Amino acid sequence: MSGSPTLVQRLLRPLLVNDVKTGESEWYPELQPRRYRESYDDVLACARRAIEEGARFQLRSVSPEKGRLQAEARTKLVGFVDDVTVSLERTDGEVVVSIRSRSRVGRGDMGQNAKTIRELYDRIEQCLI
Known about the structure:
Blueprint: H1 7-16, E1 19-21, E2 34-36, H2 40-52, E3 57-63, E4 68-74, E5 81-91, E6 94-103, H3 112-128
């Protein structure tokens, strides 16, 4: 697919997409990495808290030196497990946070991976307030 998704593609997107990464998904161009002016340690702590306090999340690993958190997210209705990676990068006095959510099974995720990314960003931003 090149360019922005058509209306038909946007309607079919929940059936065709099961891997979403901020800044790299043509299917979800609105999902971009977020930039924060807070310290790296504060953003990392809030990303960890966002995962640990989320009822459907299970933190699997934290690698502060690599700027990476790995987690699993379980869907509410069926209990499918998605793999989630939160990546932090220091750049120009800011911390850039990218998130990838990928379904382990199925061709489409019914929009769940994009929802997971939005939920984690919301939780991180609430923590940073």
